[in-house]
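explain this:
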Amino acid sequence: MIYFTKYANKKFEILNNYKVFITKETVEEAIKSPDKSLKKGKYIFILKDRLKIIIKTEGDINKVITFFPVK
């Protein structure tokens, strides 16, 4: 299960203001099949198609903390 924090939900609007359009489906797909992932402490950093996502796993719930495009 994938849960978006309040900040992660607001991040869609923030990026839209800068003409960067990312959908929830894109983020969910990246979590399900990442190109690269790295665990540091309680956080997992996921990279897929120039999108970086930071999640925290609690049981069977993947909490999306934030996400952003990378070059």
About this structure: Residues 2-69 form a domain with the YaeB-like fold fold (CATH 3.30.2310).
